[in-house]
Design goal:
By secondary structure, the chain is of the alpha+beta class. It has three domains: 1-30, no CATH class; 33-198, Immunoglobulin-like (Sandwich); 214-231 and 267-334, no CATH class. It has helices at 2-5, 16-29, 49-68, 71-95, 251-257, 286-300, 322-334, and strands at residues 35-37, 44-47, 99-102, 108-109, 113-121, 128-135, 145-149, 154-162, 167-170, 174-178, 185-191, 196-200, 214-215, 224-225, 231-236, 262-265, 272-277, 306-311, 314-319. The chain is elongated. It comes from Methylibium petroleiphilum (strain ATCC BAA-1232 / LMG 22953 / PM1).
């Protein structure tokens, strides 16, 4: 049923109003929520193709038993029919009573796989076998992931989909299904998570060179750019400094003039700051600018320098750390 509801051809044609009303009723029956309790109200069951063949076979056996007055034929027919009815009850009970919980999805970059982690919990005293989950949608092939839920325990399932664009994206519907134990009936339910996943802009590859950094106020130092592109400076020599940090080119001058030795300041990058500015990406489309800024945000964290972000109408002051990086990427993801 969910495949029919997601069919893009259902959005046009003479039956479009009827399908729209049906979709509205279906969505109202399944409100968005990050938790779901499966009950008789939201678990559905129908015979499978094998189930219909099984029913047809029972009909043929019954007619043959009536025509030829076969007592063993009656026994076999009703024995198989009883097994089918028990199978229907077990199939429905496999889903009924399950509790589903969604773990918060982690942010991803556009074009990467976003993970939807579902936790299935059961309070029953028996193991629930053969439960399949997949993400609904006409653009996704019906790829099922199967699990068993232990008695009184839980099982975690991870489903994934490709984030098509940046921004805050709704999670696809999750379809649950089981055909346990005989495959004669298919019980299923649909779960509409309320949570969203944040998709950052896809970083530009290869990463373009970073804008130049500048020295800020504080302890006096002479900042320069090394051949490797890293920022470094010099400071007064301190007892215990490794000999490899001493600037020997200035040592002779310091001895002649009575000055002090100086050492390379490996922490000078912490006193440097640079701005990742929207204006520095001129000539690109808005999405390409966001992609370049995202690449810069990832690259600048490896340098250790304090950095800030400027977007039209808003500014994030220079800082460092994971929280600052996430705030900048979120700003790029939600920029409009």
């Amino acid at each position: 049923m969910s495949a029919v509801l997601d069919d893009p051809t259902a959005r046009s044609g003479p039956l479009a109003p009827l399908r729209t009303r049906w979709r509205t009723w279906w969505d109202a029956r399944h409100p968005r929520s990050d938790t779901l309790q499966l009950t008789q109200r939201n678990v559905y069951i129908l015979p499978t193709r094998a189930g219909w063949v099984f029913a047809l076979t029972l009909g043929v056996l019954l007619v043959a038993s009536i025509n030829y007055q076969l007592s063993l034929g009656y026994l076999l027919t009703f024995l198989l029919a009883g097994s089918g009815l028990v199978s229907m009850h077990v199939t429905h009970a496999t889903l009924r009573g399950l509790s589903l919980h969604l773990r918060p999805p982690q942010p991803v970059f556009a074009g990467d796989a976003a993970v939807v982690e579902c936790v299935l919990a059961s309070t029953a005293t028996r193991t629930r076998h053969g439960i399949g989950l997949r993400l609904a949608g006409p653009e996704r092939p019906p790829h099922w992931s199967w699990t068993d839920v232990p008695a009184g325990g839980q099982s975690a399932m991870q489903l994934s989909f490709v984030a098509p664009r940046r921004g805050r994206l709704p999670l696809p519907h999750v379809v649950l299904e089981t055909r346990f134990p005989l495959g004669l009936f298919r019980a299923w339910s649909e779960w509409r998570p309320q949570a969203t996943v944040l998709a950052y802009p896809q970083p530009e590859r290869p990463t373009p060179p970073l804008p130049p950094a500048r020295a800020v106020g504080g302890e006096a130092s002479t900042a320069r750019s090394s051949e490797g592109g890293e920022l470094e400076g010099i400071r007064a020599y301190r007892r215990g400094d490794p000999l490899k940090l001493v600037v020997w080119k200035k040592a002779a001058r310091a001895l002649d003039t009575g000055g002090e030795l100086v050492s390379r300041d490996t922490r000078s990058a912490a006193r440097q700051e640079l701005w990742l500015d929207w204006a520095a990406t001129g000539g690109l489309s808005p999405e390409a600018r966001l992609s370049r800024l995202a690449a810069w945000v990832l690259a600048v964290e490896h340098g250790g320098a304090a950095w800030g972000l400027r977007l039209p109408g808003r500014e994030w002051p220079p800082a460092t750390g994971e929280a600052h990086r996430r705030a900048a990427l979120e700003a790029l993801a939600l920029w409009a």
